[in-house]
Request: fold
Amino acid sequence: MPGTELFGAEERKEVNDVLETGILFRYGHDAQRKGHWKAKEFETEVKKITGAKYAHAVSSGSTAVATALAASGIGVGDEVIVPPFTFIATIEAVLFVGALPVFAEIDETLCLSAAGIEKAITPKTKGICLVHMCGGMADMDAIMAVVKKHNLILVEDAGQAFGSSYKGTSTGLFGKAGSYSFDFFKIATAGEGGVFVTNDEATYNAADYYSDHGHSHVGAKRGMEEHPILGFNYRIGELNAAVGVAQTRKVPHIREINRKYKKMLTEILSKTQGIGFARIADPEGDSATFLNLLLPNPETAQAVVDAFNEAGIAGFDYWFKNMYHFINQWDHIREMRTASKLAIEVLGAPQDYQNISLPQSQEVIGRLISFGIRCTWTEEQVKELAEKISACVASVMQKQMV
Ligand SMILES: *Cc1c(COP(=O)(O)O)cnc(C)c1O
Reply:
């Protein structure tokens, strides 16, 4: 993904600010830090991009999801509806706050569908951990109607959707809380890092305390302040945050190039019979980090993947059956194997995880091939890629006709 492609002088400058003072910790040490508060600046930059009222940087996208769930009041025994297509951290976060994941169907947006969510609701459902996959976004109008109708807590794992929006509202801000990842593979990176966002003051405070052992961060001496709640150490360090500051400032630029290239690719490829695209709930708000192709059926998609491999374009990060983002590949999740006991073992599983049937999701993922869009491509490279993709699909379609 693009952020790492543009690592340079700006990131080094921010990191150097920290190295010169040696204050690697985000709190206190006011006199020695010479005015450098990188975690706070990182939060400010994220607020500028998203329009969030509150942002809080933490150690990873995974801990940001866990923080969002906990700060929203989701905990032991609560059923939380999750998608079967996501990065595994979403499911881990639900399990690690003691909640019980309930898998529901996605649709051609590659995200949970309103109908899928509604079907999975039981009297124990407390919330939804909605994931905006592949840089796009879920169908928010329909989903918000279900959230309101059933009075559910919505948490958005926008780990892959920083910089994307739906009808003018940033992903991450539709529900009680949201989270973004800034790991090495995302649109912007902090090396490792995540950011929690909300528009609700009480939820923000809970996240602020929760991600730092319950410290209230009010009062002179660290450790001697109030501790409103229990928490854990999910803090980000100043070095990572410094990288995050420089990278987040580059997101509007990256997004503009991504959109241009995605448009070029889409225009060329839509002329080829057999190539379809994942549905983008709001094309204006797409961060355009991925081009998501939907082939007519899984068999064709498999043949196209083989053709891509042969043509040497498999190097572009496409996701297919061998990628780690779909429930089929999660043996350890389906069997709930962990180092220690999960709440689920005590409280009972809400679903037979080993035999989950999600035919619609299976069908969509079976047809999906994704390409990461790179902001350092030239226009010639984009055209060349489009032509190669077209030629591969055309030859597969031709063979299937005879
Ligand atoms: C990357 C990602 C995460 C986890 O983020 P890390 O920073 O790697 O911990 C969570 N959810 C989604 C959807 C992701 O893509």
The mean pLDDT is 95. Residues 23 and 29 are 7 Å apart (CA to CA). Residues 3-250 form a domain with the Aspartate Aminotransferase; domain 2 fold (CATH 3.40.640.10). The first helix runs from residue 9 to 21.
